[in-house]
Amino acid sequence: MTATTGSAQTAHPERPGRSDGVCNEFTVFTEIKPGHADAMREDLAMLADATNDERVHAALRQIGTLHDARHVIFDNDARHMFASVFDGSWDTYIDDFAQTEVGDRFDKVFSHTEGFPGVTDPGVKDWFVAHQAPAGVFVSSYPDLTVQQVWKDQRVSEAFQEVLDTPEFRAALDNPANADLMATPAFQKLLEEASA
């Protein structure tokens, strides 16, 4: 396990946050403007609905580094937390969001927080740093896989499953000419993994 702990280790020394392999955590705590909690909830509900929108998924594919993200309103509607896991540099992560439709949605949600300058504002990175708190412990289930690698693995797995389901593959398994290949430990492992 490569999870970092302790205050001296960060994903990027100039930015707060922990890393585990290629994965980095980003957690921001903000104060909600008085009277804005319900409006923030409405915007979060629209954001949740938008996750089914192909444009949002296209923007996330364009960014290509976001593993997951979540927003939480807490402390009797006084505070908000945004937390995510991403690949690569902190600065690039913030820049990438500002350049997509996701950035517009970010602006809408964070507009309900105290002092948020806007995701395209030159001071937004300083604002995030001022509100970011590194996790005490951060562990990833797949620390050596980037989002791009996870997507590729999924595509390869789906394509391989399609091959396994064809009559041609079944015929190849039954062909005595392929017996030596099928007897190899690597091929047996492949079949075991495919059936798991």
The order of strands across the largest sheet is 1-2-4-3
Average pLDDT confidence is 88
Q: Kindly report how far apart the N and C termini lie.
A: 24 Å
Residues in helices, as a percent range: 40-55%
Biggest β-sheet strands, sense, barrel: 4 strands, antiparallel
SSE-based structural type: alpha+beta
| Secondary-structure element order, N to C | EEHHEEHHHHHHH
> What are the low-pLDDT stretches, counting only 5+ consecutive residues below 50?
1-13
The proportion of residues in beta strands is 5-15%
Radius of gyration: 22 Å
**Tally of separate helices:** 9
Number of strands: 4
Shape: elongated
Question: Can you characterise this structure?
Answer:
With 196 residues, the protein is of the alpha+beta class. It contains nine helices and four strands, in the order E-E-H-H-E-E-H-H-H-H-H-H-H. It has helices spanning 37-50, 54-63, 90-98, 101-110, 124-131, 147-164, 167-174, 179-183, 185-195; strands spanning 19-20, 23-31, 66-74, 79-87. A four-stranded antiparallel β-sheet has the order 1-2-4-3, with helices on one face. A hairpin with a 2-residue loop joins strand 1 and strand 2 (23-31).
Brief summary:
The protein has 196 residues and is α+β, with helices and mostly antiparallel strands. The chain contains 9 helices and 4 strands, in the order E-E-H-H-E-E-H-H-H-H-H-H-H.
Topology:
Blueprint: E1 19-20, E2 23-31, H1 37-50, H2 54-63, E3 66-74, E4 79-87, H3 90-98, H4 101-110, H5 124-131, H6 147-164, H7 167-174, H8 179-183, H9 185-195
Antiparallel strand pairs: 1-2, 2-4, 3-4
Helix pairs in contact: 1-4
